[in-house]
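Exercise 7b. Backbone tokens:
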């Protein structure tokens, strides 16, 4: 038997037997591809898949799934709201706003007089007189320095129903000076010497007069004086008082000695110089009510759009679930049908609000053109009075929300791509672990094959020895048969016959 490098060969009388032993490849180390490492990767892949599921859900909610029917209904809702606004809401009216605010303020003053002074009547002028007598105010001593009865409520900061007015009232108690606008800028006016009894003598009394008495006196002034109850000069509202304070502070910084055009415009609006409607607290309260009237068609649009979205999606969910009993119907998941928190509803509201605003602006333009008779100034004024500003603001908000949701969706899609890349890397890592395990198994199989080859190689000489002995025995038998055939053919025939019958038996 010869051979080298794992290759073995046996030759005998023209018969050749070859054996190829296994290679010397070494199996991979088992600790390089541990089961714990693969399980860790599998766990990370499972967590990443759950994270991707959540991200996919958020992306789906931020994706617009509205179809033609959704858009058509949204447009119809906007047109309907525009018709309601044109026929029912009408134009914005400062007169109506002032009247509405005056009614509410008058009722409030009567209730306050009954509570604070014990007044039991229903006459507004008498109620105001009771309040003026019950809670006199040191700031009234600066009426003439601040422009007289028709304007001092605006120029005197202590008559502003705002945090600035509260601070000015407390400062007046400690300094004896009322701050306000005198010659175009902020400045103090001495009032302590004219009404020392209205200035507190102790710190606690000063704070009491500067806060509680201040609030009570504002109540007496908000509806006008007792002489012109309900129609006299009221108090400036938060909007106008803030504008006046800002203009006065700017004038003091610049060292103005005369009232600026801005201050003149603010004071003219407070007196109602242009259209006879004073822009005071009563008017500002009425403007809130006017905004509420304008909000009605906007709320109608919101209600109709969201109701359609819910009914349609809920019916689709029930149709897919195919409930056969009432209990199964109640178990249908209607969370995807809720009309908020998804971009489809946002897009429908954007379409509806934009349609409503377009119809409203068209209506305002037509009516203003008819009323103006070609005058551009009148056209502008009439146009602005008929514009539904609540609807304009709602449309702007809807567009902004839609755009922001689109930006969030783009950011989430980028995050999703990054997560998918990470998932691919983990899948590659798991594949590497699988390949490593395969190589370990291949190495073990290779070892088993080599052991089998070695066993075969060892069995080769025994096989050859047995085969040689069998051949020699066969040759001896043939020689003996030839001798018997030559010496005694009858004996050979009898022996062969015995052998045949013996084999058959």
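Sequence design result:
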């Amino acid at each position: 038997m010869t051979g080298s490098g794992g290759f073995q060969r046996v030759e005998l009388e023209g018969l050749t037997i070859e054996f190829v032993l296994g290679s010397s490849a070494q199996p991979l180390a088992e600790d390089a591809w541990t089961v714990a490492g693969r399980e860790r990767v599998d766990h990370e892949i499972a967590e990443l898949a759950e994270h991707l599921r959540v991200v996919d859900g958020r992306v789906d909610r931020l994706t617009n799934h509205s179809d033609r029917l959704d858009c058509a209904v949204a447009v119809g809702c906007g047109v309907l709201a525009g018709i309601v606004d044109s026929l029912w809401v009408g134009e914005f009216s400062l007169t109506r706003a002032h009247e509405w605010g005056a009614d509410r303020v008058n009722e409030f003053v009567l209730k306050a007089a009954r509570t604070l002074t014990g007044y039991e009547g229903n006459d507004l002028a008498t109620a105001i007189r009771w309040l003026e007598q019950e809670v006199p105010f040191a700031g009234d001593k600066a009426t003439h320095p601040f422009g007289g009865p028709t304007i001092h409520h605006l120029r005197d900061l202590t008559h502003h129903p705002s945090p600035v007015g509260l601070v000015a009232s407390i400062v007046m108690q400690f300094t004896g000076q009322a701050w306000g606008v005198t010659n175009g800028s902020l400045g103090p006016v001495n009032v302590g010497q004219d009404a020392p009894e209205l200035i507190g003598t102790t710190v606690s009394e000063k704070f009491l007069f500067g806060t509680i008495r201040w609030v009570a006196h504002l109540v007496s002034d908000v509806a006008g004086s007792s002489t012109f109850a309900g129609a006299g000069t009221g108090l400036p509202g938060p909007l106008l008082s803030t504008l006046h304070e800002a203009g006065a502070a700017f004038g003091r910084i610049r060292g103005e000695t005369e009232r600026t055009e801005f201050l003149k415009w603010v004071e003219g609006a407070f007196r109602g110089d242009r259209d006879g409607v004073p822009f005071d607290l009563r008017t500002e309260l009425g403007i809130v009510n006017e905004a509420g009237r304008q909000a009605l068609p906007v709320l109608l649009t919101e209600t109709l759009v969201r109701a359609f979205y819910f009914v349609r999606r809920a019916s689709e969910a029930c149709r897919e679930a195919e409930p056969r009993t009432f209990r199964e119907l109640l178990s249908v998941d209607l969370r995807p049908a809720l009309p908020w928190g998804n971009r489809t509803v946002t897009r429908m509201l954007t379409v509806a609000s934009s349609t409503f605003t377009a119809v409203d602006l068209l209506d305002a333009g037509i009516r203003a053109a008819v009323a103006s008779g070609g005058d551009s100034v009148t056209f502008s004024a009439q146009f602005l009075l008929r514009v539904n500003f609540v609807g304009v603001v709602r449309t702007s908000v809807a567009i902004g929300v839609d755009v922001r949701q689109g930006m969030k969706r783009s950011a989430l899609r980028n995050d999703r791509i990054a997560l998918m890349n990470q998932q691919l890397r983990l899948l590659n890592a798991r594949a590497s672990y699988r390949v490593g395990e395969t190589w370990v198994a291949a190495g073990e199989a290779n070892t088993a094959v080599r052991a089998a080859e070695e066993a075969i190689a060892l069995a080769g000489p025994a096989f050859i020895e047995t085969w040689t002995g069998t051949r020699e025995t066969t040759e001896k038998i043939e020689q003996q048969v030839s001798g018997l055939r030559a010496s005694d053919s009858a004996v050979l025939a009898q022996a062969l016959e015995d052998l045949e019958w013996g084999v058959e038996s």
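Instructor comment: The longest helix spans residues 389-487. The beta strands are 2-4, 7-12, 15-20, 177-181, 186-190.
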